[in-house]
Amino acid sequence: MAERACILRLDRTTAGGTVLEGIEDAGVDERGMSYLGARVQRPACGTVGRIEGRPT
């Protein structure tokens, strides 16, 4: 099985954003695991975007 990464609420993205949403019942240290479509604060442009994915 291929190794997969996950991102949690309050983690930083590769573009410097901060993940704002996560699933509370799944995660680490009370930081919920995030998901495609979750909101992300984007400081470079001062907006809130969504997590997008690329097919693998």
Lay out the secondary structure:
Layout (H helix, E strand, L loop, with lengths): L17 E2 L3 E6 L2 E3 L5 E4 L4 E4 L6
Protein model, in words:
With 56 residues, the protein is an all-beta fold. The protein has one domain. The protein contains no helices and 5 strands. The chain has a 3-stranded antiparallel sheet, with no helix packed on it. Strands 2-3 form a two-stranded antiparallel ribbon.
- Weakly predicted, low-confidence segments: none
Our Rg estimate from Cα atoms comes to 12 Å
Element pattern in H and E: EEEEE
Mean pLDDT: 87
* Structural class based on helices, strands and sheet pairing: mainly beta
Q: What percent of residues are in strands?
A: 25-35%
Largest sheet: 3 strands, antiparallel
Order of strands in the sheet with the most strands? 1-4-5
In short:
This protein has 56 residues and is mainly β. It contains no helices and five strands.
Key phrases:
5 strands; three-stranded antiparallel beta sheet; mainly beta; two-stranded antiparallel ribbon; globular; 56 residues
